UniProtKB/TrEMBL annotation:
It comes from Paenibacillus radicis. GO terms for molecular function: DNA-binding transcription factor activity; sequence-specific DNA binding. The keyword RNA-binding does not apply. Pfam families: HTH_18 (PF12833), Peripla_BP_2 (PF01497). It comes from the Bacteria. Residues 271-527 form the Fe/B12 periplasmic-binding domain. Residues 169-267 form the HTH araC/xylS-type domain. Keywords: DNA-binding, Transcription, Transcription regulation. InterPro entries: ABC_transptr_periplasmic_BD, Homeodomain-like_sf, HTH_AraC, HTH_AraC-typ_CS, Tscrpt_reg_AraC-type_HTH. This is AraC family transcriptional regulator.
């Protein structure tokens, strides 16, 4: 961090929240424009000038005009805010960056604590970014100046704090390299010359974990490699990675990975028979054929997966599943709707229960890939999907920018609307990845944390979206022709012929293959 003289004028120009990767070059920006980077999710590294900087949630950088910043995310990617702002040391007059590129008092890596306070402030700035009234714009500039004051108060006079932070970073590097050795937090704190409680607090701020959890994570990752690369006994692997007890190693491994070390080793056979009800999409994405595919009397099977040679199985039948003789079972939160208890599953085969909500399909895929030894495949699948979604979003921006879109489900009991970007099978793709404009009714559902709601006649009248995607749920019996409903016929999308029927099970799924198909359907309809 560098320091310079005080300042007198500032103004925010732009704020964005987006995935972070690659080269950020400020050479084309006007003089006196600085860039602030705040990491909200993920981890990676940055290079600014000659400095290498570790990036995690809570990291904050400010780059001077004309600088180059290179960001390299790690496996799970990086998300963050990018804020560009003007800064001048002369009131009413912007100083030339060529005369003093470090006019801003602090550049480089910044302390940003407590991060919860900073992110609340930035979130308020971001949520008001589209307002255009003079008073609203002025209020948002005040919010930004309060954010800068918050940062400057921590970073202008902190030589001692910087030394402590460097000591903490050195301690973390030591643990990463010597994870096999016994340690105590008291000893680590003493070496860093801070109190135990402060060491623990700063360690968690820097890594997101307590010291013991951090070291255990490193040990478990190394043990996973040894389980697959060697035939060593479990007690030998436990000792190699730093555990003096095989029992403790087993317990820690299962707490972290979800299965025992022995099960982890066994499931990496090429001929492993895996049963994952309604998660066949995820297995196929990882290049694994499921032992069976689910068939439901209400909706049939997931035809979009193309599993013609894979036998179908009623997920409510324990005898059918037992006949398949699975080696391993993977369940998501939906398993509770089956008349089979978790103990019955576990008696048939080792069983893993995923904890992620369906909307967080990336975490689900990466978790499955982790214990199936397919992490590279998962990274590739996610990268391919995100590239496809980005390209599709650009095409759609040219064809339907600003036009509202909604997804409805027609059944014998009524017409249902799916919510916005945060919840449900469709919102994260339509309004998140493809950046389409959600209809206000869909936004209302998200505000109520509702994935799906039946529309009353009055609410149906308000559904004036320019485009409607429709799925037909035939479980409850024959669906009345919606065109017999005068309110439906009066909807703008219906009158304009902008209603697009899509496959029910393809769209009612959280898998990445399903999401790819949704993008194809949207492009076919709108691009």
């Amino acid at each position: 961090m560098t320091q310079q003289a005080a300042i007198a004028y500032c103004a925010m120009k732009e704020i964005r929240h987006e995935p972070l990767q690659g080269l950020y070059n400020d050479e084309d920006k006007e003089e006196s424009v600085y860039t602030m980077l705040v990491i909200t999710e993920g981890s990676g590294t940055a290079r600014l000038a000659q400095d290498g900087i570790r990036l995690i949630r809570g990291s904050c950088l400010i780059t001077p005009p004309g600088s180059e910043l290179t960001i390299k995310p790690e496996r799970k990617g990086l998300q963050g805010y990018i804020i560009s702002f003007l800064w001048s040391g002369v009131p009413g007059k912007l100083a030339s960056a060529s005369r003093d590129v470090n006019l801003f008092p602090c550049t480089g890596e910044m302390t940003c604590l407590p991060f919860s306070q900073a992110i609340e402030s930035i979130g308020a700035i971001y949520s008001h970014r589209l307002l255009h009234g003079q008073l609203e714009l002025f209020q948002n500039q005040i919010r930004f100046q309060q954010l800068l004051l918050f940062l400057l108060q921590q970073n202008q006079q902190q030589t001692a704090e910087t030394d402590i932070r460097r000591g903490m970073e050195q301690s973390i590097r030591y643990l990463k390299e010597h994870y096999r050795e016994p340690f105590t937090v008291d000893l680590l704190a003493e070496r860093t010359m801070v109190s135990r409680w402060r060491y623990t607090r700063m360690f968690k701020e820097l890594t997101g974990q307590l010291p013991l959890d951090y070291v255990n994570g490193i040990r478990i990752e190394r043990s996973k490699q040894l389980l697959l690369q060697t035939e060593d006994r479990l007690h030998a692997i436990a000792e190699t990675v730093g555990y003096n007890s095989e029992y403790y190693f087993n317990r820690r491994f299962k707490q972290t990975v979800g299965i025992s070390p022995g099960q982890y080793r066994r499931i990496h056979r090429d001929d492993l028979k895996i049963y994952a009800p309604y998660m066949e999409d995820f297995l196929l994405a990882l290049g694994i054929n499921p032992i069976a595919q689910c068939w439901d009397a209400r909706w049939g099977k997931q035809e979009y997966l193309g599993l013609q040679d894979v036998p179908v199985l009623d997920p409510t039948s324990l005898s059918d599943l037992s006949a398949c003789k699975p080696d391993f079972i993977i369940l998501d939160g939906g398993y509770e709707k089956y008349p089979i208890s978790i103990r019955q599953f576990e008696r048939l085969a080792p069983t893993y229960r995923l904890q992620h909500p369906g909307e967080n399909w990336r975490a689900t895929l990466q978790t499955m890939a982790d214990f199936l030894g397919k992490t590279e495949q998962a990274d590739q699948v996610i990268a391919q999907y995100e590239n496809k979604a980005e390209a599709a979003s650009l095409r759609l921006r040219r064809s339907v920018s600003g036009q509202s879109v909604a997804c409805v489900r027609l059944s014998a009991s009524g017409i249902y609307l799916y919510g916005g970007v945060d919840l449900g099978y469709t919102g994260s793709v339509l309004y998140g990845d493809l950046d389409l404009t959600p209809h206000p009714l869909a936004i209302e559902l998200s505000a109520r944390a509702s994935r799906l709601e039946m529309l009353t006649a009055e609410k149906l009248k308000e559904l004036d979206a320019e485009h409607l995607f429709v799925v037909y749920d035939k479980y409850e019996g024959s669906i009345p022709n919606p065109n017999m409903n005068p309110i439906w016929r009066s909807l703008p999308a219906v009158q304009a012929g902008r209603v697009y029927e899509v496959d029910f099970l393809t769209w009612m799924n959280y898998g990445v293959l399903s999401h790819n198909k949704k993008i194809d359907d949207v492009l076919l309809a709108l691009a």
